[in-house]
Write a structure and sequence with these properties.
Blueprint lengths: L3 H4 L2 H4 L2 E3 L5 E3 L1 E2 L10 H10 L12 H20 L7 E5 L2 H11 L5 E5 L4 H4 L7 E4 L5 H13 L6 E6 L11 H10 L3 E5 L11 H4 L3 E5 L10 E5 L2 H5 L10 E4 L4 E3 L13 H16 L1 H20 L4 E3 L12 E6 L4 H12 L1 E2 L1 E3 L4 H8 L3 E5 L6 H17 L4 E3 L4 E3 L1
Helix pairs in contact: 3-11, 4-11, 7-8, 12-15, 13-15
The structure holds 4'-deoxy-4'-aminopyridoxal-5'-phosphate.
Length: 416
Amino acid sequence: ALDPVRTCLPATLNTQVPLVTGETVEYANLDHAASAPCLAAVRDAVDEFLPWYASVHRGAGFASQVSTKVYERTRDVLRRFVDARAGDTVIFTRNTTDALNLLARSVPRHTSVVVFDTEHHAALLPWRGPNVQRIPTPRTRLAAVSAVDSALAATPVGPRLVVLTGASNVTGELLPVREIAAVARRHGARIAVDAAQLAPHRAVSLRELDVDYVVLSGHKLYAPFGAGALVGRSDWLRAAQPYLAGGGATKLVTERDVVWNVGPERHEAGSPNTVGVHALGVACEQLARNWAAVAEHEHELLTRLRRGLAGVPGLAELRLFDDDGDRVGTVSFTVEGYEPGWLAAVLSAEYGIGVRDGAFCAHIATRRLTGGQALRVSLGLGTTAGHVDRLVLALRQVVARGPRWAYDRVAGRWAP
Ligand code: PMP
């Protein structure tokens, strides 16, 4: 059985970080939703590949052949990872933001788009124009499904697309993707799922969810930065103008004309991030082999975390929905009387804990739920029960002490 913690790169687990007191402590990374540490297997695969990366597709040399093989093999890995349909295309991008912008540029003209206003900016902002309906996220999942139904009913004739996150990067709550996909189908609409936060925690199946597109980021899936993907229906992508103009996207260029490729290369102009793509593929394979262990690890720690947070005076957890539903290991909260940025700084300086504070690139969601900002704790494979306990203890201590303390370097202690 997989030991989730050992699966992570050992170096990222035992990193000692300095505290304001001058001591050091093992870093507790509770910010996996931003970027997750590299898996040991990913590091090993990248190490092995580094001497061989070269230009893909166009080189005759051995290294180019190896690189092309690795790069194209990863398309199949991604296809399997999201259980794509025959005929779906896999386009490598820099990240989720890039993939969603590519999709936004590739939908037919006059496509009506329906999107909840609490989405991450990457899913909210690429869609512009009069045919975009941003709908307020209702307080229950059932109402969310009806809201999409009503919004689609109000769209004019023509192509339609629903854009939806699989799991909220603010609250960790899962959205009712399957139910919304069924509504989309009834209206002849397509649906794109932003799986940036879902894919690191749950198996995502295009077929089972009956969705048209899925996008994800390698750096949230325990691979390094720089590679992501858009997977889904080929027709719109094949017909769209190339996302980037340049080498690799073309079949033939003459003095007068350009013939663009119709496959995934159409949107992958320029030398691709072969190393990043390989890392992404290996991370996906690791996760796909170990979903049961990943889920169990996360479930245990999330239960521990939420039980601990419930005992912190003045702490209020953020929720998009009033109904209880499935969720991933991401929890945001406010603590009455405490500024989230200050709390995050104290957790780092005094306890060696890394969390995120602010509005999480989902300003509308965070402002609606808090009136301002929040603190976010997100668990992952590298998280231990000790990290969770340290956070809960830290919050209890800080709250017991009061909000106006600062570290007095001369006296070597915290003082009001
Ligand atoms: N969507 C969601 C739900 C996210 O959490 C994020 C990252 N915070 C993104 C999109 C954007 O991902 P990236 O920064 O990798 O493009």
